[in-house]
Amino acid sequence: MMTTAILSILALLSIGGGIGWVRGKKQKRRAYLLAKPLPDEWQEIIGMDFIRYRGLPEELRRSLDGNIQVLMAEKYFEPCGGLEEVSLRMKLLICAQAGLLLIRLKQHGFYRKLKSILVYPGAFQDSGRRRFGLHEEEADSTMLGESWSTGSVILSWESILAGARNADDGMNVVIHEFAHQLDQVDGAANGVPILQQPSAYRRWAKVFLRNYDELVGEVESGEGRRSLIDPYGATNPAEFFAVASETFYEEARQLKMKQPDLYNELEGFYGVDPANWERV
């Protein structure tokens, strides 16, 4: 009996040690990729289409280069809707835009719940299944992107490319869907991602609720077109966070001027101040 118990304990310790070894190996691989210069060919491909990449401060671009390499190594890309393959260019533009959100963000785990990225050539039809854990979407509606808490993001290549090439129109499907991934890490899509300090949640809720309610009021009164944040953000708090993230990176100066409290919360969360980045 004693021998059996000892063997069981040793087996559990062995499993635990194996898990630790795998995690250690993963961390070492990430550290290597984060420190490794991005290949010249990759820089050229990204710089050709991703306007924001060209205007990033050098220090931030080096951080983004590392994020790109980790995401390229760890995420699975799947072609859909008749797309023959997800090309190197497609992968790089997705990872560059998704990696932008992680430049100074702490404890993000490189979108740790995300396993696969599905890419369609253009807009695709929504299945009508439950998304974001919030509500049923209308079946057969046309979509440009989706984020699933079960470990996948679905994107339209046309929208990926358009978002990369337009740095100041307030619309970026990759930023939008990957902001949803950050929101979904704790299992709930509610517009409240994991914050660094427990004390930050009360201020976050106060600021976001006020700005969300203002947008909802503008949309309901027919004034939504005049708002800086896209009216789609009035759908629910999760969509508001995703759309506000797009605005933060794409129309930073306007957001900082018109809604400074919201800008400050996003600046504190993402750890960057895009209003001071070079205009591109």
Walk me through the topology.
Blueprint: H1 2-35, H2 40-49, H3 51-55, H4 58-74, E1 76-79, H5 88-100, E2 116-120, E3 124-125, E4 130-131, E5 135-136, E6 142-143, E7 145-148, E8 152-156, H6 157-165, H7 173-184, H8 200-220, H9 237-250, H10 252-258, H11 260-270
Parallel strand pairs: 1-2, 2-8
Antiparallel strand pairs: 3-6, 4-5, 7-8
Helix pairs in contact: 1-4, 2-5, 4-5, 5-6, 7-9, 9-10, 10-11
Plain-language structure description:
- A four-stranded mixed sheet has the order 1-2-8-7. It has a two-stranded antiparallel ribbon with strand order 3-6.
- The protein is built from eleven helices and eight strands.
- With 280 residues, it is α/β, with parallel strands linked by helices.
- The protein is globular, with a radius of gyration of 20 Å.
- α5 (88-100) crosses α6 (157-165) and α9 crosses α10.
- Mean pLDDT is 86; it is low at 9-13 and 128-139.
- Helix content is 55%, strand content 9%.
- It has one domain: Collagenase (Catalytic Domain) (3-Layer(aba) Sandwich).
- The termini are far apart.
- The protein has helices at 2-35, 40-49, 51-55, 58-74, 88-100, 157-165, 173-184, 200-220, 237-250, 252-258, 260-270, and strands spanning 76-79, 116-120, 124-125, 130-131, 135-136, 142-143, 145-148, 152-156.
